[in-house]
Each structure stands twice: as structure tokens, then as C-alpha cells.
Amino acid sequence: MIEYKDATNNDFERLVALRTTAMIHDFKRHDLDLTRTKEFFRKSFKAVYTKMLYMNDEWIGCVALHPDDEYDTELKHFYIHAAYRGQGIGKYVLQSIIERQRLDNKNLCLYVFKESAAIPIYEKHGFVEVEVGDFTHRLALWQKPPL
């Protein structure tokens, strides 16, 4: 069973380390400087919207759900420790988020790096591409029609 605990600003450094480990292939593929990626994370990290994920008292990852004016909610900073990947944990957390959004009749969006291995996973859950940037795709899952 996954336990969700509120993040604090003191979690920043360990979240940066988890993010860097989880996304290192994307960062390298797009030739992104790790110092810049850390600063980007610093600007986007909001503890109030972030949950730390635990299983059997072990910290296994994190997820953040930020309010979004255009899409209701933006899924950000969704990372699972490498040791826990491939066990269905990420799928379970994502399905739980999607179900909550469905019950609340709220749309959900996220950004993902171009050529990311995560794109087919999100598409399998019903996300569709709504925007393409220099490095990223914006994907959305509609619970209600777009404005």
C-alpha cells in the first residue's frame, strides 16, 4: 500500500537527486546543463502541492499536483526510485490520480520530454498531445471538454 505524506521545503535536495537520476537520459539527450535543471526545479517546486510516496516506511518517490488555469490540474514531479520501478507502483499512483480527477470532473495535463519513454505510458492511460515545445510535449487527459 502506498502512503502519501506532505513534502516540506527540506525535501528539496533529495527530490532534486531523485529527479536527476530519473531524468538523466532526457537531460543528456537534450544536452541540458544539470545546474540549469536544478534551478528550473527550484522555481517549480512547491512543497504544498507535493506528496512524498512511501511503501512499508520506505521513501519510494514523489508526485505533485499543481492547480492549472487552463487544464484544472498539472501533474508535475512524478518520480519513482529506480529500485521500485517495474513493480506497477507508478501505474497505481497514476491510475489513482486519474480516478480522483475523474470523480472531481477535472482535466489533467503534464509536460514530458520529447522522445521520453514515458509518452506511450501516458498515452495508454488516455493522455493526448495538445502542445509541442522545443524540448517537451504537453499532454492532457480530458474529463470535460476543453474551453
TrEMBL record:
It holds the Pfam family Acetyltransf_7. SUPFAM superfamilies: Acyl-CoA N-acyltransferases (Nat). Residues 2-147 form the N-acetyltransferase domain. CDD domains: NAT_SF. InterPro entries: Acyl_CoA_acyltransferase (IPR016181), GNAT_dom (IPR000182). It comes from the Bacteria. This is GNAT superfamily N-acetyltransferase. It comes from Geomicrobium sediminis. The lineage of its organism: Bacteria, Bacillati, Bacillota, Bacilli, Bacillales.
